[in-house]
Structure formats: structure tokens, C-alpha cells
Design brief:
43% of the residues lie in helices and 18% in strands. By secondary structure, the protein is an alpha+beta fold. It has an eight-stranded antiparallel β-sheet. A hairpin with a 2-residue loop joins β21 and β22. The chain starts with a helix and ends with a strand.
Length: 884
């Protein structure tokens, strides 16, 4: 291996390969850290732009759109980041992530730079310029061209990259806050009858029939969002042929306008066909009067609004097709290309030996490359490119300069950049020359003595260790990049000092010390402090005598360390942050309720009040215990006339009738009179069980078939019939609270009331008697048990659970039944029904209806058994625990 690597043609390529390999590892590691970090927008961030915000909802994952709502659920606007969609836009050394706030009109309400891949000094300079980001405020990307932006002096590349990222993220791609319903395949088939698949592509959709591309579909929103007809805007769909030019069909989709006017346009084939066959160019410049396009009679304003929306959408589509290929290098880039060409002349022609030419060239480098443009290669620049990619579009001149600096030493013994381009090196050389000219009257011998003295000084033991400093700085930078440490590498070099407007104190101090030292020690900073020069010197070929040396061994060791660091970082398990649980609780329906939320809660007091109010409403709608409810009044009335009752009662009665029919009467909400008779209902209670005669007297008033459903009314077939929703209302109330939380954007919560639970997200809950756990994932669970709320009469204990078919408490060995279901009302009711039926009949019915049910039975005193249906076993992680 040593013999092969000592071949002059291979060793320089090995060194270049080391640099490229380490750059790829840095890039890979940076992308991994970015994925781990993720992107979340908090309510606290949202309130900087929308003070009344209470929820942030990521509704569109693909486009990264976060909708902001208030405590009433009304949309205030949306927030989106420019990253990662614009990570290809590199400023000086990296991309920028800007948080953009859009109001309900689609205008920019605020901007905030979240993070930047450029140096901290450049970013601070931009943040100190109040007019830069303010220029974008009130810009409506869908309706007007972007504002004219002036670069921030001293941070030109960074400021232009930020502006371009904002424009690219929004121009032609800003979302609609009015027409938020996603496009469906069935809608596309109204335009392309053979469509089998649609693929989103920014603001348009590609349509495929099997694997054949058949055209595009454009939505006129959001361009048409602010084009009102008679009462509001209308969204239309535009079908475009595969040539991406010709309109083949137009269809009205949805509207805020008067429905009758919109329907009139939908039915008017002639009007919509006026736009077919036109090109997008024609549609974008359409003159309605000249083309004799008249509105639909009776819906003129609505029809003209649709036409204007089509016109705006076509114009936006054409603008979005302006590609980056129109870009051309700037004057600054041509200037750097000239610098590279001049440096090649100075390095490989006799011009380098002419003192006047060389001094003139060095002064040019100091003024133009250093002071005017500050276009210096640096460790922070290379690190930024390795992390984020080359700035081919924003700084092609710098990329060309870096390419020349790396490749010329590879094929020659000349260090092009350090000797012929770097303004910092030129300044050091001129300062050293100035000192030598000050002693020009001395003899040649004196000059030689001074040179020998300088050389002896350089070789002094203390300074010899300084030659290792550039290598140490390179190793330090590599560790910083591989560890993900947020450290500004510009602070360990002096090159940012040339950008004096943005320079930090550290870089100014390093640059000043290096220049002063060069007066006494030739090229002091280049030899003892420059990590960038160390990288370029590592690549430089020494000609045919080049051999494997210590620097090559160190480089190989660094590669091994870097690979190991990446592997170890990825192998260490990442600890997921467990969000804090916010808990609310109270009383309802004679029992306790609780709500646990793992999402961010902006206003806990307001949310708790909303939950309490919702539960109070649920109880008022369904309670037969309260004497002032409409249900109690229905139960008290002793006639068979139809009576109006609240819609929840009718809805729950219909749901109960379905379960009653399926369970053959084991579940029956008309059991109310019997419950009251046994003393399990509202007071007064009794201590002795009712006699057979009392039960038989009430049986004619019980039966789920004896309720008739009329239009908004219920009618009793027996005047003494009474409804008791206790076996379904608690679960229904849990559903109502869950829907309230979902409406407000919460995505990770657990609602419980009286032992009935509904989970959004994954939650592990405990089931009582016997103590065991169960994991719920976006589902509900209801439990019915015979082990509580019972009473004894003499030596006998009676269960509170009544069998409506016999009018008596159940007397089987089933202790409890738990049922998992999508809705808690269903789980609550089915658990009661199966418990009344007992384990044999109940388990058979659960298997038949594919219900996830778990039965706890007590075949003998002191022993409990657990039996489950197939659906429970297949979809649950229930773990029984030994009973006490």
C-alpha cells in the first residue's frame, strides 16, 4: 500500500479524496441532525403574529402549512417555514430558515429568521437592518409581484438568499385559507374521465391514467380567493392538456357565493365552454369585452368573478414556470473569474518576478477581493458548503475560486490561492516587505544575518509548536461539524474581518494580531494560524518526489475517526421528549370526569371552561335525574302523544334501538321505571327488593319497541314508559368532549367520564377489577361491571345491573365486560348489553358482530378468568394482572 500511494500520480488524488470524503460525511451527518431536530411551531411563536392564537395545527404535512386558530376555532392565518423547501438556496455558506406568517387575505403579516447556515456576523448585520424584512410586509404573493429588495451592505449574499427563499416559498405556491378542502380523484374524473391517479406538483396536479400522463389540473384558489362575486369568491378547476398550454375544460368546484347563482353557472355549459380551447397565455391576458364574454344572465357578478379567477390563475401558472435557467452570473462573479485568470498568469508566467507588477497585483487583491467584496475562502465557508451544498447559484464566483484553489495545487507544486489570491496573505507580504525596505541601507551581510536571525526565531522551540495550530483548528472544526455543536467557525479565523461591517470581535482580533506579527515574522498568520491554508497545503503536490508522510497518516486517522463518530452517533438510541401532560377534572352526571392532553395548551383556564360547559350541556340534554330537563318532562308526562325532545335524545334513542334489536332486548333505554323501582334511579331509594307483583305491574311499560320516532319527536306507546340513558349518555358525553378537542386542533388526549374513555393518540389505561392495563390507539373503551353500586337485602346482594327482559338484576358470574370501539357511546352501550347477556351469549354475539370485547368472569369464589373475542385479541395489547 505504501509503495502504491507513493506513486506521484495517485497520492494527490488520495488527498483530494480525503477532503471530499470528509465533506460527504459532514453533509450526511448534518442532514441526519436536521431530521432529528424536526420542525415544530409553537403557540408562543404564533402569538408573535396572531396575539389571540390558541392552537397551531399542521394540516398540510406535504407543504408544511400550520393553520392558526383562536379559542372559538376560527382561522386567524397560517405559518410556514422556508426550510426545507428552499434549502437549495445558499447565501455565503448555507441556507436560511424564515418563519412566514400569512393573514386570512393571503398577505404576509410577519417574518422571523429562525436560523441561518451563514455566519453569525452576517446574520446579525441583517437583523440590525429594520427595513430588510419589513419590505415584504403586506405583500400578497398570489396577486402582486415581489417587492424590490436591496441587499444589506456587508451581508449581500446572505440577504439576497433570504429574500429569494421567501419569494420561492410563496410565489405561485401560497396556500388558500378559504378553500382548504384537498382535491379528490373523483373531482378530477369529472375533467379526465380515465384518471386513475393524481400527483401534487406545487400548485398544480399531474393526472395519470394508469401510467400514462394525460394532463394537469389547476385550482383557481388561492389566486381567486379575493375575487368576490355577488356575496363571495368561487373556486374552479381548470383542466390543461399534456402540452401544458391548452385548456380542455373548466368546472366550478366550491363557492361562498349564493348557491342558486353558482348552480346556475354550473348548469350553463355554454359559459364554461367559452374558456375551452384557449391557451394559458390567452387566458392570462383575456379581455372580456373584446372577446365578447358576457356573464350568465341572473348570475352576472358570480360568473365574471369566476372568469377573473381563471385569468389570475393562468397568469400565476405562467409566472411559476420562469425557471432558474434564466439566471446569469453577476458582475461580482465575473470580477472573481478575472481574479482567478490573473492569479494563473502571476503563478505560471514571468510576471511574478517583476516587483512592480506583483505589488500592483497585491494592492488590487487587498482593495477589490478583500475590502470591496470580502470574497475570501475560509474554514467557515468550506464547512457551510460541506453541510448545506455549494452556492452555485448565489455565489458562482466564489465556487470557481474554491475550485481553482483546490485543483491547481493538485496538479502542480504551486499554491495558487495562498500565494496569488488571498488578500490577507498579500497584506502580510506587503507588511513584511515594508519592514525590509526600512532597513534597506544595511549591507547585504546584515540582511543575510537578519534573515538567519528570523529563521532562527521561527525555529525556536516555542514557535515550532505553533506550526501545529492550523492542524488543531481543522480537527476542532471537524469535531464541531460531526457533533452537531452550534459553533460559528468564523470566530477561529481572521478572514471575516475583511467584511468590516459584519465582523465580530474575535475575528478582528485574530486578523489584527496576524497582520502585526507578519511585520516581524514573514507570513506569520499563514504559517502559524490559518486552518484554510492547512487544508490547501495538504492537497498540494510536491512533484515526483512526493511520498506518504505524517500528514497523510493523520488524514487517514481523521477519516476513521469521522466514520466512527457518525456510526456511534446514529447507533445511540435517541431519547424522545415526552411532552408534559395537562390534566383537567371535575364532576358530571354524578361521577368524576378527567381530560389529559399531551399537546401544547395555550390557555388552560379557557379550555377547562369550554370542557365543563360542554359536559354541562350534555347532562342537561340527557339527564333524567334533573327535574328540569326536557327528558325528565318527557318521562313525567302520562300520555301517548308525540313530544318534542332535544336532538341528542332522539339520536341516542335511535342508536339504542339498534343495539337493543341486535342484543334481543338485553340493552333497553326504557328500563327507567324498573331502575326506579329497584331504587337505583333518582331518590327516594329503597332498602328491600320489590315484589313480583310490583315488577309485573311495570313490565307493560318497558320495551324498546314501544318508542316511536316522529319528525323531531318521540311518542310513547305506553303512558308510563320512561327513558333512562345512563348506559349510553356517559360515553356520548365523552365523544362530545373529544370532538370539541379535535375541533380545536388537539391531537393527543384522553377523555374519561365514569370509567368510559376515548383516546386520541396512544394511551395506556387501567381497567378496574381485576387490575390490568390496556393500550388505546385512537379508539374508545367502555366498561360495565356488576361489582359496584350494589346493595344487600338480608343475606343476598343484588347487582345494580338490570336485565330489561326479566325486570330483575342479573345473577350470572360475569363480573365485568369491556368493549373497544371507535365511538365511546357505542362502547358504553355494548359493554352494558353484553354484560346483561352474560359471558356465553355475550361472547357469541361479540364474535358474530366483530366486537372487541373482554369478559371477566368469576367461576368460583376467589378466582377470576378473562375471556376475549377475536377482535379484542387482534387489536389490543391488554395485559392481565393477578387479582388480589
Amino acid at each position: 500500500m505504501r509503495a502504491v500511494l507513493s506513486t506521484p500520480n495517485l497520492l494527490p488524488f488520495y488527498r483530494l479524496g480525503v477532503v471530499i470524503g470528509l465533506s460527504l460525511l459532514i453533509h450526511y451527518q448534518a442532514r441526519w441532525f436536521e431530521q432529528q431536530r424536526g420542525s415544530t411551531i409553537s403557540v408562543r411563536q404564533a402569538r408573535k403574529f396572531f396575539p389571540t392564537a390558541t392552537r397551531v395545527q399542521l394540516r398540510d404535512v406535504e407543504r408544511g402549512l400550520h393553520y392558526i386558530t383562536d379559542s372559538h376555532g376560527d382561522t386567524l392565518g397560517l405559518l410556514l417555514n422556508t426550510s426545507p423547501q428552499t434549502d437549495n438556496i445558499i447565501g455565503y455558506s448555507g441556507p436560511n430558515d424564515v418563519l412566514i406568517a400569512l393573514d386570512t387575505n393571503g398577505a404576509i403579516a410577519g417574518l422571523q429568521l429562525e436560523r441561518s447556515g451563514d455566519t453569525e456576523d452576517h446574520v446579525d448585520l441583517i437583523m440590525r437592518d429594520p427595513e430588510f424584512l419589513r419590505a415584504f410586509l403586506a405583500w400578497r404573493p398570489n396577486e402582486s409581484p415581489p417587492p424590490k429588495i436591496h441587499g444589506v451592505a456587508g451581508a449581500t449574499l446572505t440577504s439576497y438568499a433570504i429574500a429569494e427563499a421567501i419569494q420561492q416559498r410563496l410565489a405561485g405556491a401560497a396556500p388558500s385559507l378559504r378553500f382548504t378542502e384537498p382535491l379528490k380523484l373523483d373531482e378530477v374524473r369529472a375533467l379526465f374521465t380515465n384518471a386513475t391517479r393524481i400527483v401534487p406538483d406545487k400548485q398544480r396536479f399531474l393526472v395519470f391514467a394508469q401510467n400514462e400522463f394525460v394532463g394537469y389540473v389547476l385550482r383557481t384558489s388561492p389566486q381567486a380567493d379575493n375575487v368576490a362575486g355577488y356575496r363571495g369568491p368561487t373556486e374552479a378547476l381548470v383542466a390543461v392538456a399534456p402540452d401544458a398550454r391548452t385548456v380542455t375544460a373548466v368546472r366550478v368546484r366550491s363557492s361562498f357565493d349564493t348557491p342558486s347563482y353558482v348552480d346556475q353557472i354550473r348548469d350553463d355549459d355554454y359559459y364554461l365552454k367559452l374558456f375551452q380551447g384557449r391557451t394559458l397565455d390567452e387566458l392570462a391576458t383575456l379581455d372580456f369585452k373584446k372577446e365578447k364574454i358576457e356573464g350568465v344572465s341572473g348570475a352576472t357578478q358570480t360568473s365574471f368573478a369566476i372568469a377573473e379567477g381563471l385569468k389570475r390563475r393562468a397568469a400565476a401558472e405562467l409566472k411559476s414556470r420562469v425557471r432558474a435557467s434564466d439566471w446569469r452570473p453577476a458582475t461580482r462573479d465575473w470580477g472573481l473569474a478575472g481574479v482567478v485568470a490573473g492569479s494563473l498568469l502571476m503563478a505560471f508566467t514571468p510576471l511574478r518576478g517583476k516587483r512592480s507588477v506583483r505589488v500592483t497585483w497585491q494592492l488590487l487583491l487587498i482593495v477589490y477581493v478583500g475590502i470591496v467584496n470580502s470574497d475570501l475562502l475560509s474554514l467557515s465557508l468550506f464547512a457551510g458548503w460541506a453541510t448545506n451544498g455549494l452556492a452555485l447559484k448565489s455565489a458562482p464566483g466564489l465556487v470557481l475560486l474554491a475550485a481553482a484553489a483546490l485543483l491547481v495545487p493538485l496538479f502542480s507544486r504551486r499554491q495558487l490561492y495562498c500565494h496569488q489570491i488571498c488578500p490577507h496573505g498579500a497584506a502580510q507580504e506587503l507588511l513584511g516587505t515594508w519592514r525590509r525596505r526600512r532597513i534597506g541601507a544595511r549591507t547585504v551581510t546584515s540582511a543575510r544575518d537578519e534573515a538567519s536571525s528570523a529563521e532562527a526565531t521561527v525555529r525556536a522551540p516555542l514557535l515550532r509548536w505553533f506550526t501545529l495550530l492550523p492542524v488543531v483548528l481543522v480537527v476542532f472544526a471537524l469535531l464541531v461539524l460531526l457533533s452537531g455543536w452550534r459553533f460559528d467557525l468564523a470566530n477561529i479565523e481572521g478572514f471575516d474581518a475583511w467584511s468590516w461591517r459584519a465582523a465580530g470581535i474575535a475575528t478582528i482580533v485574530i486578523a489584527t494580531i496576524g497582520l502585526i506579527a507578519s511585520i516581524f515574522v514573514p507570513q506569520a498568520y499563514c504559517r502559524f494560524g490559518c486552518p484554510t491554508g492547512a487544508i490547501l497545503n495538504f492537497i498540494r503536490s510536491a512533484g515526483r518526489g512526493d511520498r506518504w508522510g505524517p500528514r497523510d497518516s493523520v488524514a487517514l486517522f481523521l477519516v476513521i475517526i469521522a466514520v466512527a463518530a457518525v456510526a456511534i452517533t446514529h447507533a445511540v438510541p435517541r431519547r424522545e421528549a415526552v411532552p408534559a401532560v395537562v390534566t383537567f377534572q371535575g364532576r358530571t352526571m354524578g361521577t368524576m370526569w378527567s381530560v389529559k392532553i399531551r399537546d401544547e395548551v395555550a390557555d388552560a383556564r379557557a379550555l377547562e371552561l369550554a370542557i365543563s360547559n360542554k359536559l354541562e350541556w350534555c347532562e342537561q340534554m340527557t339527564s333524567h335525574w334533573r327535574t328540569n330537563t326536557e327528558l325528565s318532562q318527557f318521562n313525567r308526562v302520562r300520555d301517548t302523544n308525540g313530544m318534542f325532545v332535544p336532538w341528542p335524545v332522539i339520536s341516542l334513542a335511535r342508536k339504542s334501538a339498534e343495539i337493543s334489536r341486535a342484543s334481543e332486548g338485553a340493552f333497553d333505554i326504557t328500563v327507567g321505571p324498573l331502575v326506579q323501582l329497584w331504587g337505583f334511579g333518582p331518590p327516594p331509594r329503597r332498602t328491600d327488593p320489590p315484589g313480583n307483583g310490583e315488577i309485573a305491574a311495570l313490565q307493560p311499560a318497558v320495551g324498546w319497541q314501544k318508542i316511536e320516532f316522529l319528525d323531531g319527536q318521540l311518542r310513547k306507546q305506553h303512558p308510563a314508559l320512561g327513558i333512562d340513558l345512563s348506559a349510553i349518555a356517559p360515553g356520548w358525553a365523552v365523544d362530545q368532549v373529544a370532538e370539541l378537542l379535535e375541533f380545536r386542533g388537539y391531537t393527543n388526549f384522553l377523555v374519561e367520564s365514569g370509567g368510559e374513555l376515548r383516546a386520541r393518540g396512544v394511551w395506556t389505561i387501567a381497567i378496574e377489577h381485576p387490575s390490568r392495563s390496556c393500550t388505546l390507539s385512537n379508539e374508545s373503551i367502555g366498561t360495565s361491571g356488576t361489582y359496584r353500586q350494589n346493595y344487600k337485602s338480608g343475606a343476598r346482594e343484588y347487582s345494580h345491573l338490570l336485565d330489561p327482559r326479566t325486570g330483575r338484576p342479573v345473577a350470572h358470574n360475569t363480573v365485568s365486560v369491556s368493549v373497544r370501539h371507535a365511538r365511546c357511546a357505542d362502547a358504553d352501550a355494548w359493554a352494558a348489553a353484553l354484560n346483561v347477556m352474560g359471558v356465553e351469549a355475550g361472547l357469541a354475539l361479540a364474535q358474530k358482530r366483530n366486537l372487541a370485547a373482554q369478559f371477566v368472569v368469576q367461576p368460583e369464589a376467589g378466582r377470576l378468568e378473562i375471556l376475549t373475542s377475536s377482535a379484542w385479541s387482534n387489536g389490543s395489547s391488554a395485559t392481565p394482572r393477578p387479582s388480589e
